[in-house]
Amino acid sequence: MAKLSSINKNERRKKLVKKYAGKYARLKAIADDESLDESERLIARLKMAEIPRNGNPTRVRNRCTTTGRPRGYYRKFGLNRIELRDLGNKGLIPGLTKSSW
User: Fold this and answer.
1) End-to-end alpha carbon distance in the chain
2) 45 plus 67 within the same structural domain
3) Do 67 and 53 share a domain, yes or no?
4) CATH no. for residue 16?
5) pLDDT higher for 13 or 96?
6) Is the pLDDT of residue 99 over 90?
7) Which of 54, 50, 16 is nearest to 31 (CA)?
8) SS (H, E, C) 34-101
9) Shortest CA distance to 62 belongs to which of 51, 73, 46?
10) By the 8 A CB rule, do 74 and 27 touch?
11) How many domains is the chain built from?
12) Domain that holds residue 35
């Protein structure tokens, strides 16, 4: 199991990303729009830099919902590979069967 502080830190990051998502998206669209004047794009980039670092979506780490493990994460299930195998073998994940041949 991952450290509780790491899990909590990631949750705080998710809240900040949600809070600044609209502002970040608007500024990102302005900064990437090549039809606008260069000075407008620069101002948008400077305003993006004023957003807290943890408000950036790339700072959020995908973690397993049961253990908080960051490695071997499957997005479709929200679990890491170890938990996916355990729950799959127990038959607790609908539609997932262990194959054998």
Assistant:
1) 33
2) no
3) no
4) 1.10.287.1480
5) 13
6) no
7) 50
8) CCCCHHHHHHHHHHHHHCCHHHCHHHCCCCCCCCCCCCCEECCCCEEHHHHHHHHHHCCCCCCCCCCC
9) 73
10) no
11) 2
12) 1-61
